[in-house]
Design goal:
The complex is a heterodimer of chains A (111) and B (113).
Chain A (H helix, E strand, L loop, with lengths): L3 E3 L2 E5 L4 E6 L6 E7 L6 E7 L4 E3 L4 E5 L4 E6 L8 E8 L8 E2 L3 E6 L1
Parallel strand pairs in A: 2-11
Antiparallel strand pairs in A: 1-3, 3-8, 4-5, 4-9, 5-6, 7-8, 9-10, 9-11
Chain B lengths: L3 E4 L2 E4 L5 E7 L5 E8 L3 E8 L6 E2 L6 E4 L5 E6 L8 E8 L8 E2 L3 E5 L1
Parallel strand pairs in B: 2-11
Antiparallel strand pairs in B: 1-3, 3-8, 4-5, 4-9, 5-6, 7-8, 9-10, 9-11
Classes of the chains: A mainly beta (111), B mainly beta (113).
Chain lengths: 111, 113
C-alpha cells in the first residue's frame, strides 16, 4: 500500500520554508526521500533509518517518527533549484528489499 | 562510470506488438528494479531482482516479464503491448546494505497506440 504524502502541491517564494509529510499504514524500517525534476530521473536526497540514523544531504533535513509511522522533509530558505516533485519511499524491513513510493508532492519555488 | 543506463529512450508500439527494455548498471549492484511512472501515481514497482538469476513481482507485474541473466543487466519485456502500458519506465539499482540509495536510469518513454 502506497504511503500518503501531503500536501499534494505547494507554491513558495524564494527564501520561504516548506514541510512535506509522508505517512504509512505499516510499521517502517526506513524512509527514503527523492526529488525529481520535470523530464528527469528521481535523485536521492536522504535515508532515515529506524533507530535514528540518517544518511544524505547536508542542506536538507528530515525526521522519522517510528511510532506514528511518519516522516517529514524540511526545506528551509528555499531556492529556485528546489523546485520539483518530492517522493518518499518506504521500506518495511525484513527480507523485503523493495521501496513503496508515495504519489509525490509538487514543489514550485518562484522568485 | 556511466551509472544506470536504459535503452531505448523513446519507443512507439502498436497494440499487440512486443518489445524489450534494457537496463544496464556498472556499479556491481546486487539489486535492480523496474518502475513505471504515470501522472499523479508516483513510481510503482513492476518487478525486481535481488541478484543474478533471481526475479520477483512488484505491485503491478501483470503484462510484463523480466530476466536477469547477468548481474549488470535487467531486461523488461512486454509480450503483447496494450495502451494501458503507455508510461515512463525507470530502472534503478542499489548496492548492499539495505540503507543504500537507489540510483535511477534516465527513463524510457513508451507509447502504445
Amino acid at each position: 500500500q502506497q504511503p500518503v504524502q501531503s500536501p499534494q502541491a505547494v507554491i513558495l517564494r524564494e527564501g520561504e520554508d516548506a514541510v512535506i509529510n509522508c505517512s504509512s499504514s505499516k510499521a517502517l524500517y526506513s524512509v527514503h526521500w527523492y526529488r525529481q525534476k520535470h523530464g528527469e530521473a528521481p535523485v536521492f536526497l536522504m535515508i532515515l533509518l529506524k533507530g535514528g540514523e540518517q544518511k544524505g544531504h547536508d542542506k536538507i533535513s528530515a525526521s522519522f517518527n517510528e511510532k506514528k509511522q511518519q516522516s517529514s522533509l524540511y526545506l528551509t530558505a528555499s531556492q529556485l533549484s528546489y523546485s520539483g516533485t518530492y517522493f518518499c519511499g518506504t521500506h518495511t524491513g525484513g527480507s523485503n528489499y523493495k521501496l513503496t513510493f508515495g504519489k509525490g508532492t509538487l514543489l514550485t519555488v518562484n522568485p | 562510470n556511466a551509472g544506470v543506463t536504459q535503452t531505448p529512450k523513446f519507443r512507439v508500439l502498436k497494440t499487440g506488438q512486443s518489445m524489450t527494455l534494457l537496463c544496464a548498471q556498472d556499479m556491481n549492484h546486487e539489486y535492480m528494479y523496474w518502475y513505471r511512472q504515470d501522472p499523479g501515481m508516483g513510481l510503482r514497482l513492476i518487478h525486481y531482482s535481488v541478484g543474478e538469476g533471481t526475479t520477483a513481482k512488484g505491485e503491478v507485474p501483470d503484462g510484463y516479464n523480466v530476466s536477469r541473466l547477468k548481474k549488470q543487466n535487467f531486461l523488461l519485456g512486454l509480450e503483447s503491448a496494450a495502451p494501458s502500458q503507455t508510461s515512463v519506465y525507470f530502472c534503478a539499482s542499489r548496492g548492499r546494505p539495505d540503507y543504500n540509495e537507489q540510483f535511477f536510469g534516465p527513463g524510457t518513454r513508451l507509447t502504445v497506440l
